[in-house]
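Q: Joint fold for the lines below.
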Amino acid sequence: MTGADAIALLPLIILAGTSVLAMVGIAVHRSHGFTLGLTLAGLAAAFGSLWIAAPLAPRRVTSLLVIDHYSLFYFGLLIAADFAIALFAYDYLAKRDVNREELYILLLIATTGGAILTASSHFASFFLGLETLSVSLYAMVSYLHLRRQPVEAGIKYLILAAASAAFLLFGMALVYAELGTMEFAGMGQIFFAGHASDTLLVCGLAMIITGVGFKLAVVPFHLWTPDVYEGAPAPVTAFIATVSKGAMFALLLRFFYRSGATNHQILLVFTIIAIASMLAGNLLALLQTNVKRILAYSSIAHMGYLLVAFLASGKLAVEAVTFYLVAYFITTVGAFGVVSALSTHEREAEDIDDYHALFWRRPALAGLFTVMLLSLAGIPVTAGFIGKFYIVAAGAASSIWALVIILVVSSVIGLFYYLRIVAEMYASPEREGLGTRSHVSSPARAVLWALAVLLVWFGIYPEPLLRIIRTVLPT
Amino acid sequence: MNVTAFYIAAAIAMVSTLMVITRKNAVQALLYLALSLISVAVVFYDLGAPFIAALEVIIYAGSIIVLFIFIVMMLNLGKRATEAEGKLLRPRMWIGPAILAAILIAEVAYLLARGNTTAAAANLISPKQVGMALYGPYLIGVELSSLLLMSALVGAYHLGWHKRPKPEAQDVGREYATRIDAGRDSVRVGSDRSAGAA
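A: Joint structure:
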């Protein structure tokens, strides 16, 4: 490792260093506000250091990591999402009776793990990044450990994540046994050499897909999603839905883009997964009455949409995935931000009745939530619409018509449950609901407004974002 | 590599791991876990990686499992635990692990007596090479592992934390008593609770 390598890794070093600093800070003086400040400062510094690292890109730092514009872009996305989530977590934890400061350490370490995933070009860093993310999430999911539900969710997540990690590891071992390399780029040459139909290799790839599919929560690996979304604290749910899944998707894209397996027969599996996720996610959400569960099923469907873009091979596909992920990040962080803002000391604002006539009590929050839900549904003038449009365009360009048609049909089904929440919020007030008492601090409110503005801005004028995205092809 | 030896050690690893998750007694389960890790070490040795085999024994079977057993036994003072400890000395409790361990010992003795096969000796990896790889091309991996362990540590600390009544906080004896009564994070010997999230 040289000095230039260290500069290229600066965002990661700052993230990891901040987590250590936060830990030492807690040991010396336990203060919620100070820890939050330190976390935000660290995230801001890491975000700023992206521009210091950018001139060096693309650069291979040992065989494990690749710092290119693609990974730097995703670093930025993850760090920005984490920034918003940390602010929401502050409000959320201030109402709770637990040790509050540790969550920020775990957030920072998990973000580092996610960032490693987006930059990894080697099985070793893939697995280590994933485990760093998972282990932090076990504790984050059951953070309110004095209650039953978060602990239950945490144990479910622990067992399933450990089992899927075992699958992933065994798959990696099989691929390594067959190809003799753990670097994604090295695999590409062997794929092209025509060994691609070997049984061991296909088994290994299938097991890797199992591990990846679990983290993305796509059908049929989605069983944990609703329970964990429901049981985890709302800011942590936002983290699972965005940082954890986004990082994994970035890795998936890089893995297949880099190993050149984009025409491999294994992609048929992704076609089936995409169709199942879109349909199952949207259909299962229809009958839910719990907002967090609805968002969980909707996230399954959104991962299905993303897979459509992923399957539409080529440059347009990478752009579509990246744009859609940005829109999805903004929307999901915003939606869970509203949920966590409405949560009170006793409980989460998760029942759909809690949102009854919300507009007449908290017009600003109801309006923000409406924007987020409409973007998730893909209504025009929001970034969600442009994202979906982009995916349909990418799908049409690769003429994968079956997937595109199912995407459109399932989006229409999805409209129902998003609009059901919206209708509930604007109903005339008949009974007393939740949310009259919970307090939202001004920074969190500012972040929510900023997210809404971004959504509409990217929905009307996506050109600046697209210009950046066009430069971030994975190498 | 001796194929028969591999299959015997692998079978012992599988059987003992199965026993880990089906035993109701935590200490007995841990004995099987130690055995499972040692049989994996034998597999490594048989595959021609004696260094990794030694690490497996020293780190996993040695320090980690001993720490586990130590903590499980230490946390559960009281009448119930004493009864459970008495049960441990019955042949029913230790005969299973003992037989499996005896098979492993015989196998290792056989492998040692036969000496290194040429195939194993050819690509023998020395501790120096492992160290060079870890602190050369895989330096980032080492750093990441430390971060991973830190998150596990912070998470375990947080989940193990319980709010205790403030006036008694200075009184060590009282605090200790309440912890045992609450018994929430301790694994009871002889109960059917699992040995914690490791």
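Q: Anything notable?
A: The longest helix of chain A spans residues 148-179. The mean pLDDT of chain A is 90.
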